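MODEL INPUT / OUTPUT PAIR
PAIR INDEX: 1
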Amino acid sequence: MENLTTPPSWTRIINSSSHPGDADDNPYKCVFDEDFKYVLLPVSYGIVCVVGLFLNLLALYAFIFRIKTWNASTTYMFNLAISDTLYVVSLPLLVYYYAMGDNWPFSVGLCKIVRFLFYTNLYCSILFLLCISIHRFLGICFPLQSLRWGHVRRARRVSLAVWAVTVLCQCPVLFFVTTSAKGDAVTCHDTSSKELFGQFVVYSSVMLVLLFCIPFLVIIVCYCLMARRLLQPTRGISRLSRSKKKSVKMIIIVLVVFIVCFLPFHVTRTLYYSFRSWDLSCQTLNAINLAYKVTRPLASTNSCLDPILYFLAGQRFMKFAGNKMPGKAQNEVALGIVPNSHLGASSDTDTLSKELKS
């Protein structure tokens, strides 16, 4: 029904499942049709929880008990697996929350922690993928320099710095996120209260630039340079070697995963926040609200895709329970780096390839 005291563009979309008072509390001045999310989010988060927990525990087992000598890539991947595991164990709370129709029966502190873990995992994943990409870039394009910069002890310090920066940058989430009562239900917001929403948008914009845009650009540059180097023909060999083809495929896979999981979420979230203050029709606002809700589970699927990348990065990783390795595999670098004989990868990665034997 059109509100005669407001412009026609603020025409409301009435949702039968809306709680009383939603229209007054909603910053859009529209009540959206969100029945879809009470099926989409519990199902998608439930799948991510089960699959992600299984794959990440499997990966952690391989890292801790089967890999004897670690290199820089292993260190980054191990920390990435820890981040993913911490996040997926919080998903049962969100599954219950959305299955109950946006009704949060737990404490305010637990709501803050669940939202904090989502954003911490999101940006930890981006930064650790950045570290892995830079390590591969140095190993392929600057093999001599990678001997110094790719040392495992330096990778451990970088990993600690990533955790410190991410946790520090996401601490404001614990301040902004809150709950609010709507009728008989309690909402666990993923943003903030109406009074603090403007400040939250500014904070989110800074995080968007620092923790997504800049790492994304660096990854693209690194992979473009790596692809150009890998596609250069080796002297005396007219066709790409098998290991070079594998490395090119890995570049494509990582970029696709990055674009599918992280890019849509950040784009729709930016539009979602920006459109709140614009005088747009409820149909337009409902469309961007729908897009944002759909891309949120996509951002969570990185917890399932990261372990798959570990397995694809090293052919021996999936066979960590075996007793023998083919002799040819000893000449390959274990976790996605091209063979030492072709591009002079760092010595610690070559050692890891040999130590992956069971």
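PAIR INDEX: 2
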Amino acid sequence: MLYQEGIVKRIILAGMVMLGGIMSHAQHVTSVRAHGALADGKTDDSRAFQRAIAKAQKNGTRKIFVPKGHYLIAQPIRLPSYFTLEASPDAYIELKPSCNQYLLQNEDLVNGNAHIKVTGGKWNGNGWTQTRSIRSTVDSSEFCFGMFFYKVRQLEVSNLQVDSTRSWGIAYMECDTVHIHDIRFQQNPFKDARHTSALGQNGDGVTGGGNHVRIENISGFTNDDLVAFAAGGACFQGRMAPFPAVDYRDVTVRNITPENSCDSIPALKAVAFYTFENRKVSDITIENVHGNTAMASVLFYSLFDKTGYFSNVTVRDVSGANVYGRSTQAWYPTEYGIICVRQSVIDRLNISRVSREERRYANPQFSFDKHTIIDSLNIDQVDIRHQQIQGDLLWQAAGAVIKNSRITGVSVRNMK
């Protein structure tokens, strides 16, 4: 009994020591408010963020906290290696109009950084007041992304919202081991005071390229792709950004929910994979994509008339239809299938558990253009319901080369 009591006492003491350590650590977490951030939505708090970051580096915690408040910044928050930014759910970080900057970036855009984590907050880029500048190098350009990570190893971004950035909401390029999850987007759907749709203006949600990438639980509206993956390159209204074309592998995109904006404009595409300069992306899994889009739900595309390569691709659990019908972009629903391949070579493409309820457009569920080559195609469990739609709602593949295929469990039926 005495022996047991001694054990209990030692456990309690050890717990008190651990709790004390936690409390001590919490006391040393560096708040931006303690370093001069006013959070009044009027004063530029950029320097306060950098002072807090410098302090956290010096005291060894390597973490800053952004409490509730409205923070206006005119310069990007620059995060060094082995560093965490944690924001309260009630923290609102806004980019000053017309400053043509990022909301946040890694510190070294030449050599890169390692082990960066960003979580929490609502981030607003004041998108249509910003002007992009694309120059010969990445570090000299002003792409006006919301968050921009370049050559970062071990990156995590989570549990936050991004609104109205001029270009991509969260951009990561040439990164390794990336986890971006639980993000909501409300990108600006208009490009002027007359409410002209900004659809297609390359305002993606999450876009990037890297190895060992996990993109999960992404929802909301964007002017372009909700989630995109690029094997290098990037085009902004016809001009190429200076990102090199690279082969990548091991990419998972799951739980993607495109939504409509305020006047029923849908996101342009849910998930898109792009290759540039004959590069390849391998070992791709896309699953649980649910929601209507203006173009494709899932797209594979090699741009600028260059053949792109994809290897070992799995797409499963996809539902949605093309719904956009504004007169200014009336061609969108007829140009793309719900799952679409363009200008690409794929060795293995496995598609399963796909459903669609179509009330308007006769475009196909699966569209493969004349430049598509697929070595092995497997399609299983497809359910398409429609209301008196005339045309082929299942398949369009004129000119495509599909060497081996297996198609099972397909149902196309008229709804009563």
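PAIR 2 NOTE: The chain has three helices and 28 strands.
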